[in-house]
């Protein structure tokens, strides 16, 4: 394109300089992206194809730090250049730890004679109770081999101590403590903040217990939300006390008394007297203790990311069991979690693979978009129509939309501390009329029909009774569809689903009693069930989705959003437009 301006001579344009500049820019960007692609391919191929050989007398150093996610991701090869991690770091992202890697590594450590034991190093891994139980159960299974587990940390967070309690010896730094204090659930309420800026959230919902929207029109917990939260928090705390008590030979009464003392503020010697730890030792001096346990000073250690690279036996089977990880909030078009259109596309790809004979869904989601949940549900039914059995393994959450996408499976497993259910629908419409008055904005326009400007009116003027009824009817229609899907999938009457629905959150153990879960178990149980339903003898596992493009992670590294900004974006997103959601209440458990 030639651009004319006031400096263009009368006899015509002289475009050479502009064309040359444009050509130079195009060449630069072409070379840049080609080089980036080649470098990424070379480094990605180098990392993905590399394997690690186990040495004799090895200790698996399982570092409990960072943030736990369902599926490990490849480390961005450019991360070192961006200052995210040192260039010599392991190829995986050390800020996140994949539950899939941890469980696979623990299984390998149990059977490989080169691994002498497991050292739980640190106790600051951010996770939820169901994932913690999966790790703890894997360690208990590991100990059936006769090998040892050793734990050490500067301080133990409560959920990490729940895991570490399986260890043969628990070590604590002289200045550290075990934060055994009981559980607390907290929720933030935004109502007064919205009032200050002149925004009212107009709420439409079905379900007495559907409390996800309460932070936008209340300033404290409703009685219904308090009741359900107390119930599932009590169940999680009972699991912690029962498991820790069995491993540490402490009674429930003793553990309750210790929690009331707030052990996180007690000195190290008191932790030993209480029976929570065995040995006080500086974390930097663990080498001497590891020499005792390994019987040699020449032992080796291997980290989670390195052990994940140790070659596993290859299956030569043609038949596949597809294992699909669905983690995060459910959205329609974009997002970091479960994006409806992308999941539907992925399921179409799986259906085209005629070697896939069974499907396992690992669901870890609090829900989200009702429309996207319905789309995913339908895609799963299409897979079942191809005579492919579908089994769900629930993670920390499979609630609201997370349960919606699970309910149509042939079989459902959950951990006892999984949060599930929350069968309910809500809609939100921001009313910014007071904000509009504050800043002096007026609205006027033309319409051709009675409700042509319905959405704008609801937002800028507030809903009238007729508009509210129209919206409420739509929400109730969504709830009726949701409960019908659950009833169909669980082979029960819809009225029964409605009676246990109402947006109420249940623990996985209670879900089994109610029939919305079939069995208590983990992802290995789910895979075994899928194999059984498909009638397979030999099979290989195929994992989805594929690893993320390193360029995506590169862009995320440039995001310097603060926690305060994320909080404000959460409020902004919630208030930005009318939407129908199947989402469980957000709660922080400490």
Structure description:
- This protein is α/β, with parallel strands linked by helices.
- Among the domains are: 58-181 and 262-307, 2-enoyl-CoA Hydratase, Chain A, domain 1, CATH 3.90.226.10; 320-442 and 457-548 and 565-589, 2-enoyl-CoA Hydratase, Chain A, domain 1, CATH 3.90.226.
- It contains 21 helices and 24 strands.
- The strands form six sheets. Strands 11, 14, 16, 17, 18, 20, 21 and 22 form an eight-stranded mixed beta sheet that branches. It has a six-stranded parallel beta sheet with strand order 9-6-5-4-1-10, sandwiched between helices.
- Helix 3 (129-143) packs parallel to helix 4 (158-164), helix 11 packs parallel to helix 12 and helix 16 (465-490) crosses helix 17.
- The radius of gyration is 27 Å and the shape is globular.
């Amino acid at each position: 394109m030639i651009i004319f301006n006031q400096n263009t001579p009368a006899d015509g344009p002289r475009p050479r300089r502009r064309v040359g500049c444009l050509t130079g820019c195009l060449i630069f960007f072409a070379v840049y992206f080609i080089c980036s692609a080649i470098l990424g391919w070379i480094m990605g191929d180098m990392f993905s194809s590399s394997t690690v050989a186990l040495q004799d007398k090895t200790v698996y150093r399982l570092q409990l730090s960072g943030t736990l996610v369902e599926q490990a991701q490849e480390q961005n090869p450019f991360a070192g250049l961006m200052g995210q991690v040192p260039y010599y770091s392991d190829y995986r992202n050390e800020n996140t730890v994949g539950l899939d890697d941890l469980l696979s590594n623990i299984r390998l450590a149990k059977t490989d004679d080169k691994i002498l034991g497991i050292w739980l190093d640190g106790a600051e891994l951010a996770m939820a109770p169901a994932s913690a139980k999966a790790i703890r159960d894997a360690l208990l299974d590991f100990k059936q081999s006769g090998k040892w587990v050793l734990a050490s940390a500067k301080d133990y967070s409560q959920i990490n101590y729940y895991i570490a309690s399986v260890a043969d010896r628990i070590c604590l730094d002289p200045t550290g403590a075990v934060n055994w204090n009981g559980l607390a659930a907290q929720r933030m309420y935004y109502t007064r903040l919205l009032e200050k800026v002149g925004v009212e959230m107009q709420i439409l919902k079905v379900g007495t217990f559907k409390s996800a929207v309460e932070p936008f029109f209340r300033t404290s917990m409703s009685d219904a939300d308090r009741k359900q939260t107390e119930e599932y928090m009590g169940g999680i705390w009972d699991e912690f006390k029962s498991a820790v008590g069995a491993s540490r030979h402490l009674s429930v009464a003793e553990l309750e008394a210790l929690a009331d003392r707030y052990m996180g503020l007690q000195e190290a010697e008191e932790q030993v007297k209480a029976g929570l730890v065995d040995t006080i030792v500086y974390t930097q001096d663990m080498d001497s203790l590891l020499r005792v346990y390994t019987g040699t000073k020449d032992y080796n250690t291997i980290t989670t990311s390195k052990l994940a690279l140790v070659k596993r036996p290859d299956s030569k089977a043609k038949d596949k069991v597809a294992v699909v990880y669905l983690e995060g909030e459910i959205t329609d078009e974009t997002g970091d979690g479960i994006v409806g259109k992308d999941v539907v596309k992925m399921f179409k790809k799986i259906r085209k693979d005629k070697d896939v004979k069974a499907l396992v869904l690992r669901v870890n989601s609090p829900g989200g978009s009702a429309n996207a949940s319905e789309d995913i549900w339908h895609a799963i039914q299409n897979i079942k129509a191809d005579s492919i059995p579908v089994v769900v393994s629930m993670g920390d959450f499979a609630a609201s939309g997370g349960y919606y996408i699970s309910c149509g499976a042939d079989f459902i497993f959950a951990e006892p501390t999984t949060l599930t259910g929350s069968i309910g629908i809500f809609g939100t419409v921001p009313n910014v009329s007071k904000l509009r008055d504050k800043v002096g904005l007026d609205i006027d326009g033309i319409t051709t029909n009675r409700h042509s400007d319905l959405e704008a009116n609801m937002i800028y003027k507030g809903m009238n009774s007729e508009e509210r009824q129209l919206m409420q009817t739509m929400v109730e229609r969504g709830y009726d569809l949701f409960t019908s899907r659950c009833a169909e999938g669980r082979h029960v009457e819809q009225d029964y689903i409605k009676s246990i629905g109402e947006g109420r959150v249940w623990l996985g153990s209670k879900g089994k009693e109610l029939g919305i879960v079939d069995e208590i178990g983990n992802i290995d149980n789910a895979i075994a069930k899928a194999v059984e339903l498909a009638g397979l003898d030999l099979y290989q596992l195929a994992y989805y989705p594929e690893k993320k493009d390193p360029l995506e992670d590169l862009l995320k590294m440039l995001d310097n959003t603060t926690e305060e900004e994320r909080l404000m974006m959460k409020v902004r997103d919630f208030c930005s437009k009318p939407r129908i959601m199947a989402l469980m209440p957000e709660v922080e458990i400490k």
